[in-house]
Amino acid sequence: MKIRTFFFLIAAFFLMTSEDGCEEVLLIKNIYPNPVQTELHVELQTEFLEDFFQVNYNIVNMNGQVVGAGKFENEINSINCSELQPGYYTIQIPEYGESTKFIKK
Q1: Which residues, in sequence order, are bridge partners of residue 34?
Q2: Global model pTM greater than 0.90
Q3: How far is it, in rounded angstroms, from Cα 76 to Cα 31?
Q4: What is the pLDDT of residues 21-55, one digit of tens each?
Q5: Where are the beta strands (DSSP E) in 1-105?
Q6: How far apart are CA 90 and CA 64, in angstroms?
């Protein structure tokens, strides 16, 4: 899998090319801090979304249980992780088929 970065004006987006040659734009640009203690910041690539958007997400633990859910409504969003038990988690964005992992300290 190959990841390429393109810069237009001040914005950047990431285009991932899989081994079968298909290309897809990644919606999640960055998550930080990782590992997280209390508040996780999720930065989205909003260039490809409508001006007024809401993106649903789930937080899933390593047992596959949904332990949190919400909506991203901005380019940079915060998720309160203080109630999560320490461990590995995944943020899933079902409508875009995207997920990324993070660690809770």
Answers
A1: none
A2: no
A3: 9
A4: 665 567 899 999 999 999 999 999 877 666 557 88
A5: 2-8, 11-17, 23-25, 28-32, 39-44, 55-61, 66-72, 76-80, 87-93, 98-104
A6: 9
Count of the separate structural domains present in the chain? 1
Exposure class string for 15-36: b at 16+ Cβ within 10 A, else e: eeeeeeeeeeebbbbebeeeeb
Tell me: cis bond preceding 33? Omega within 30 of 0 counts: yes
CB of 55 closer than 8 Å to CB of 71: yes
Contact 105, 35 (CB under 8 A): yes
Q: Record the tokens describing residue 9, joined without a space.
A: 């004006």
Q: What is the CATH number of the domain that holds 62?
A: 2.60.40.1930
Give domain status of residue 8, yes or no. no
The range of the structural domain enclosing residue 31 comes to 27-104
